Amino acid sequence: MKHTLAVLVENKPGVLARVSGLFSRRGFNIESLAVGTTEDPDTSRMTIVVRGDDRVLAQVTSQLGKLIDVISVSDLPASESVDRGLALIKVSADSRTRSEIMQIADIFRAKIIDVGSETLIIEVTGDKSKIEAITNMLGRFGIRELVRTGRIAMSRGEKTVNGY
Amino acid sequence: MTEATISGAKALIECLGREGVDAIFGYPGGALLPLYDELYDSDIRHILVRHEQCAAHAADGYARATGRVGVCLATSGPGATNLVTGIANAYMDSVPVVAVTGQVPTPMIGNDAFQEADITGITLPITKHNYLLRDVNDLPRVVKEAFFIASTGRPGPVLIDLPKDISTDEIKFKYPDTVNLRGYHPDTVVDTDAVKLAAAAIIASERPIIYAGGGVIIADAAQELLKLAETVMAPVTTTLLGIGAFPESHPLSLGMLGMHGTKYANYAVQESDLLIAIGARFDDRVTGKVDSFAPHAKVIHIDIDPAEIRKNVRVNIPIIGDSRAVLRSLTSYLREMRKKSQAWLAKIARWKQEYPLSYRESDEVIKPQQVVKAIRSVSPDAIIVTEVGQNQMWAAQYFQFENPRTFITSGGLGTMGYGFPAAMGAKVGCPDRTVIDIAGDGSFQMTSQELATVVMNDIAVVVAILNNGNLGMVRQWQELFFDERYSHTNIAGSVDFVKLAEAYGAIGLREESPSGVVSTMSEALTADRAVIIDFVVDPMENVFPMVPAGAAINEILDPGASS
Asked: How confident is the model at residue A1 (pLDDT cuts 50, 70, 90)?
């Protein structure tokens, strides 16, 4: 079972190492981790997708809570939150296949952000299944390179993790 | 007019003074030259150790004996890495220690400079928190936070890495009055709903047992524990680190549980219908096979660290909070309790009678257990520190401790060589107390160079070596589980401990006769100097009872038991 955690941390050097080190030494499996600044320049936010049962989730949450630089840990249940990731896909494209690839990109509301004589770079944003779906669709053209961000997530509605 | 400034080094000393630090255990080096230059004029007592590991252990022993934060100091690179074992030891046993390390100047950090080590990186998993100072203006705040973090909540070691240039940079000194940490709020409020549930479970129980750990001692909750036990009339067993939390002469005391615990403690846990765990973490040396631990019991778990709840075992009623506050609250709901555990207490009394701790006495050879009992008889109020292994278990089993902070031992990490430097630290913190390290000949040789430190600083500790010429606990496992194949555990004849003591200017005594144990021990205590006693003991004596690793705690080996 997967859990998505929103972790607010002090925006200080070494915090990522504290968090990732905790996961590895306690044997927790991170499926995805994304980190960036927030509306408050002193605070960073990590979105961590972790695999495990409820006991693992409780351990992860309380162990994270023990880190001095961790300000808060919130569980974001899938039904009450939205999540997005971004992928850049460099796909082989010649004059014969280019228009078909562009149509696929269109269907997925993806963007072409680079056009070369032999390749296209496609930027796609979405949840995990959408990114996997377009990746599968583009597979037969030949994916030369693929890079993905970790997932970021947010509660639906008025609820926030910082309490404002 | 500009305000007067002081160096970072001077500011650090100033901060330590504000925190009430009266002793530091340390070792100088290049990166610490500015700091040691300031220490030269300071009133703070500095104990120069002979190896940095012992500075950390001494700070740890000081902290456990006094309840105050222990402080150690080491230079960059190897000085800092030598602290690592001591820091890990303090971390595992939740001991408040502040470690200050020198670091190469900030412009050189990351360049593999001479005596550079990434000590904040290295100690990430073994500190409660750590800091690399990059701006001298942060120094007072960081020191204030370090002491606060180390000593509050679940205590632990905090490391401050001090680059050389930061210690010479100038600062307008002002020590903060408060700390402001967004991610750290150690004050807990007792959850009275959970406490009421626990009280109801206690009232409903027929066979309750209290399982008390080191958290009771840290929280200064021994009185509250006694009150709870007597209110409920529940027997009390302690972990190794919980020894001293409950008087072992009390009729409700079951002594220690677990791998080398008393049979009656383990039997009582296994038959209990309610286990009240207080400041204990269900370590594998306590639970044995986890699935078979306390199989009939509901579990109440009181701990200040939420991460301990359900880490190892199922828990029915968790209560997060300081043991003292929780116990006070809990007992207040039990005042009217009808004591009904008479049948249970009678059963336990029978177990105690049937299965006492026992060993075969001898007229020819000293038994190590006999030495522990002799120490108790001549110095019942001593602070006992131990090394790790058989010596530690015999001390835990046979001394009969009555008071908190009188038994100091490396529990979680199991660090051989801990006892002697920790005893040194305990004696510095409690100069009016008798401090005795119950040692093994293997462990003592790991840190025996501190004989120089205790002699030169007039630290009158007594080291009672239970010398069996073996790495005894490993030898015992080889005997029991590895077909008596004694691979590299015989160390007989390593050194003449009497001459070793004398070489450093300490007193060395040797005793080989069972009839001389008490008088030799008494002689050592009159010396008021550092004394090493070489008790030549039975080399084949084993620690029993014993629960083999991975077995349920009522599957107990005790071949010599007299019944």
From this structure: confident
Q: Chain B residues contacting A, CB < 8 Å?
A: 120-121, 124-125, 128-129, 132, 149, 181-184, 305-307, 309-311
Domain A2-75's class? alpha beta
Q: What is the DSSP string of B189-240?
A: ---HHHHHHHHHHHHH-SSEEEEE-HHHHHTT-HHHHHHHHHHHT--EEE-T
Mean pLDDT, to the nearest integer, of B193-198? 97
Question: Average pLDDT of B373-381?
Answer: 98
Separation in Å, CA of B299 to nearest CA in chain A: 16
Q: Which residues of B are the active-site residues? A: 52, 114-115, 164, 473
Total tally of structural domains belonging to chain B = 3
All residues of chain A having their beta carbon less than 8 Å from the beta carbon of residue B124 are: 17-18, 21
Neighbours of B213 (CB within 10 A): 28
Q: Per-residue pLDDT averaged across B139-147, rounded?
A: 98
Mean pLDDT estimate for chain B: 96
* A65/B305 CB distance under 8 A: no
Assigned CATH topology for domain A82-152: Alpha-Beta Plaits (3.30.70)
List the domain range (segments joined by +) for residue B75. 6-171
Task: Give the number of beta-carbon pairs within 8 Å between A and B.
Answer: 43
Tokens read off for B406: 């009188």
Measured between beta carbons, the chain B residues lying within 8 angstroms of A13 are: 132
Please name which of A10, A149, A150 lies closest in space to residue A67, comparing C-alpha atoms.
A10
